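User: Run a structure prediction on this.
Assistant: Running it now.
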Amino acid sequence: MKKLPHSKAKKEQEGSREPKSLLQNLSLIKRLAAALLSKTALIRDINTSNKNPFYKELEDELLEKINELNIGPQGFGGKTTALAVNIETAPTHIAGLPVAINVGCYVTRHAECEV
């Protein structure tokens, strides 16, 4: 490996901090959008379904299959592993299909109060 003079090496390091290309920025935006949609699905009311019939059916099917695993709360076994499956979608090109998943445990939807 050829050693570079100090000033030239420093310039090359600075050159590596070039602004991101438009495609890199778009990729980041898509990932952020997926994460935002994932959080939106997580906080959606548990009694609502996706308005699109295709995704509503997919939510119902996934919930049924997940609960058939009999994993139960915290993996201790039982008939209810998941309370809901919420799917949110946004248009994108199939080649850049970003996916984000959030898991909300029972604690995030549970509240108690003593009177």
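Residues 45-115 form one domain.
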